[in-house]
Structures are given as C-alpha cells and as structure tokens.
Amino acid sequence: MADILVIHFQMAKNNGGDVEEVTYPTMKKGVAYITFEDPEVVENVLKKDEHRLEDKRLSRYYPLKVTRYCENVFGSVTSVLNMSIFKDQFVLEDLIQELKKNITALSFGHLQSNGHIFVQGPFPAIKLLKDFLLLKAKSLSEKDKSQENKPHQRPKRRLQQQRLSMETSNFTPDPAGEKQVVVLDTDVYHYMKYFFLKKFLVNYDVVISDITDGEITTVYLENARSRSGARQVLRVKEEIENQSIKLHNSLRKERIYLEGHTGDEKQKYKQACETVKSHYPCVLVIPYDTHIDIIGNSSEIFEFTKEVSRKIQSQNIQLERSCSRGCCK
Asked: What distance in Å separates the CA atoms of residue 44 and residue 13, rounded to the nearest whole number?
C-alpha cells in the first residue's frame, strides 16, 4: 500500500511531486501520512478536487480524502536544568553524555560554568528526563543512608535532594503514596479532562485538582479518604500518564485567530464553532478572547476549520445581500 501511495502522489495528473516518506499503517485505521520534498507540492495536491487511488494490484479504485497534516498539540518544550546539585557526585560532562545517550529525542545546549544547561524536546521526553534525574537523586539518597558513619557528607546531600525536589515540583508525594502529581501539556490535559477524566474516576475514590501555568498544567491526585487508597491514587496516575502519551502522539491543533475582529464577529465565530461541533463529537473547542483552539485528530480538525470558514463566509454573503436589499428600498 505504501508503494501504491507513493506512485499516486508522484503522478502529475494528481498534482503530485517527489515523495520523501510515506507512513503507513498508522495508529488511526485507514490513515496514511505523506511527506513531500517540496512544500509547494502539498498545496498543489490539496487543490485537486478528487483523488482516486488506482493500481492494477487493487481490485477497484478507492476515493481518497486528502487533508493537510497539522502540527502536534505540543511540539517541543524548552527547559533549563540546574545540574550543579550533582557536581560533588558526578562529572557533569559525563552525566550530560549519559543523558544524551539514554534520551535521544532531546537536544542539549552548552553546559555553563554555573551548572545550568538548556534542554529542548517533546514533552514525553522531558518527563522521561525528569524521572531519570529523580532516579539519580534517589540513588544518592540511598548512598547517604549506607554511609551514616560519614555525617559530614549527609547535610549537603540532603540539601541538594531538597533543592531537586523543589525545582521538580511544589507537591511532594507522601510516604504512604496517597498523594501523587502528574505534569502535563495544558492542551492534552484539557482534552483528557473533557473526554476521559470522568471515566478514570468512576471506579476510584480519588480527588483531582490542577494548576495551569501557560502551556504546562500540574495535576494533583489525592485519596478522598483518610485511610488506604494509595493503590487507587497510583492506578489513576498511571492511567493518566499512559493516556497522555497516546494523546500527545495523536492530537493536533488548529487555531482560529480573532485579533482585529469586532465583538460581534468574534461571537459569530464562536457560534459557528458550536454549530459545527455537533458533527465532530471527538473535537474539543476552546474559545479565548484572542483565538479559538480546535483540538482533535489531524483530518477532523482540518475539516472542522474549513466548515467553520464556509459558515462565516455564507453569513457574510447573506449579510451583504440583506444590506443590498435595504439600500434598494
């Protein structure tokens, strides 16, 4: 099928061009992703009214629904690591090399003299980095316990452990495990909260609260009862983390900008989104003062925004006709 798709999208009659890569099969049944070498070819392919997949290896022709591939909801995160807390136990350059080897999806900047280093990469990889460093810190803590005959080393390491915890999160899980924290991309969390969170909690006695800081949302999980429940809290945390990874890989976002529009025009866009929403049950619409975010899978949100645009254009045409009739009177 991948070969057949390459042939189709390279043919001149399909407005095609050189194909760099075909991804098929994918996580979504019946969907393939085509990457072209020239961005202009993408625009030409989208202009073609109808795509029919035909090949002698196929029993019949198949109509193709071709849409633009949208960017990930959360492309990358930039973070600053303070590695100086490890300088007494590790050679920082060697530790950075170990991080690069174990988490290849991340890009690391230059290690500064104060121990700070810039890191950039996808959100799940940043989370993996956090877990890796916490594991390192835990190993240091265990060494402290096994070296009680060296009290002069303990206070400094304990302070370093506290600094790491503070920089990682302002919420520390209690020893009983009845409190947990999850850090998520805000858009992913909004989508999860709208479509999945109630299902997660229906069988668990867990209370969830959240604090949003721009593109990052910190989710706090706590057992609703005073005793037991640690397993339930941990189970909900694992389900949220697993679901967030799936959503991060599949969700895309389109944005309708409202800047420069009047209050009435903004309201028309929001009403149009609400009307179209009934045809796209798996799409999340988040209205803001300056824009509207449309979150869902790539093909659906692309069609969603096109339908909203058509509705707005239709309303404008009707308004112009109404004004024209008014002038005639």
From this structure: 11
- Counting DSSP H helices and E strands in the chain, the numbers are 10, 13
Per-residue pLDDT reduced to its tens digit, 117-170: 888 877 778 878 888 888 877 777 666 555 555 554 444 333 333 333 333 344
Tell me which residue of 108, 106, 88 sits closest to 154, measured CA to CA: 88
Cβ–Cβ under 8 Å, residues 220 and 179: yes
CA contacts within 13 A on the Cβ side of 209: 6
Helices within the chain (DSSP H only): 2-10, 39-47, 92-102, 123-146, 154-168, 186-195, 197-201, 230-250, 263-277, 298-328
Cβ count within 10 A of residue 265: 14
Q: Work out the angle at residue 222's Cα, subtended by the Cα atoms of residues 218 and 228, and round it to the nearest 5 degrees.
A: 155
Question: From CA 187, how far away is CA 100, in angstroms rounded?
Answer: 28
Residue 232, token pair as written in the block: 């339930």
51-53 vs 116-121, strand pairing mode = unpaired
Other C-beta atoms closer than 10 Å to the C-beta of 316 total: 12
Check: CB of residue 169 under 8 Å from CB of residue 220: no
| Neighbour-count burial for 277-297, b at 16+ CB within 10 Å, e otherwise | eeebeebbbbeeeeebbbbbb
Q: How far is CA 154 from CA 92, 148, 164, in A?
A: 20, 8, 15
Cα distances from 282 to residues 64, 80, 246, 277, in angstroms, run 21, 35, 15, 9
How far from each other are the two terminal CA atoms of the chain, in whole angstroms?
Answer: 62
Strands 206-213 and 116-121: unpaired
Q: Summarize pLDDT for 189-198 with one digit per residue, the tens.
A: 999 999 988 8
Please tell me the pTM assigned to this model. Answer: 0.59
3-state secondary structure at position 188: helix
**C-alpha distances in angstroms, 288 versus 190, 239, 253, 257?**
14, 29, 14, 10
Largest CA distance in the chain: 99
